[in-house]
Specification:
Oligomer: single chain
Number of strands: 5
Radius of gyration: 20 Å
Number of domains: 2
Distance between the termini: 34 Å
Shape: globular
Structural class: alpha+beta
Largest sheet: 3 strands, antiparallel
Length: 136
């Protein structure tokens, strides 16, 4: 049961990341005006395309809906994690959360193992590097 909730949470957060990228200008919607006029314009003029004339409102609405769904109590264990330094709760989707990354070479040729630790932005400098890992 917990795995199903965690899988739903990861799916929703992945969609949320796609929406954030689209609002920043990397839209993957085929119906967006950015893609309709992209092939019609010539390279000589080099126009600046304003993103999201047609899809910005729907993306913002969808982002708000996903944020409401993710803030339900059934996703509380997935969203709020424990900071490794201070021990307080960290909202994994909040602005004060940061992921500290560590890597080490894996046994296979050319592969690298990754480990991420959630911490507050003010606590991320105090995270201890585990033995055999390098800060990325």
């Amino acid at each position: 049961m917990i795995d199903n909730k965690r899988e739903e949470f990861y799916f929703l957060t992945e969609r949320l990341q796609e929406i954030d990228a689209a609002l920043e200008g990397n839209c993957n919607d085929i119906d967006c005006d950015k893609y309709i006029y992209k092939y019609c314009l010539k390279k000589i003029h080099k126009p600046v395309l304003r993103h999201g004339f047609s899809c910005t409102l729907s993306l913002k609405r969808e982002k708000e809906a996903i944020m409401r769904i993710v803030s339900l109590t059934r996703y509380k264990k997935c969203r709020y994690l424990k900071c490794t330094v201070c021990g307080k709760k960290v909202d994994s989707l909040g602005k004060e959360c940061s992921v500290v990354s560590f890597t080490r070479p894996c046994g296979d040729k050319g592969y690298v193992e990754y480990k991420g630790i959630y911490a507050h932005k003010k606590c991320k400098r105090k995270v201890a590097v585990p033995d055999g890992w390098k800060r990325w």
